[in-house]
Prior knowledge:
The chain has one domain (2-71): CATH 2.40.50. It is mostly beta strands. It is 12% helix and 50% strand.
Amino acid sequence: MHQYIFQLHISAEQYLDYYRGTVKTVVARASNGQTVQFPASLLQRFISPEGVHGRFTLTCDENHKCIALERS
């Protein structure tokens, strides 16, 4: 398994593009310098009136399929 730790700061207004489906993926830079890309739908449970903010851990399997996204 692979784990990627990264920070996200997406305002509520910016998240509307993800919610509407205009933007389907999120791209972030992990703390190790790697770029990670994952479906925006994984963020739905983390949305607040201010948007999505915080440190997250994305866990993927050996085929780089997303297994879990957790706030860390």
